[in-house]
Write a structure and sequence with these properties.
mainly alpha; 0% strand; single chain; flat
Length: 70
């Protein structure tokens, strides 16, 4: 279940809400997910390119029109 949740972190919610057709399925490629841990690198996923990069995505500055006026 660990790799499936990396591929689609919303899997439990989609299953509970009966939206199985929207689930991003883990393809069992074993190219960049947990196998990278064995060589000292971070986890990545071919199915979910945002996996493990959430912090970087949050740190991006919002466009000026979306920022709170100072």
């Amino acid at each position: 279940m660990g790799r499936a949740l990396i591929a689609d972190p919303e899997l439990p919610h989609k299953t509970q809400d009966q939206h199985e057709e929207q689930i991003v399925h883990f393809i069992d490629c074993a190219q960049v997910c947990f196998d990278r841990l064995f060589v000292g690198k971070h986890v990545e996923c071919h199915c979910n390119l945002k996996a493990v990069h959430e912090y970087e995505l949050l740190r991006r500055k919002a466009p000026a029109r979306l920022r709170w006026p100072s």
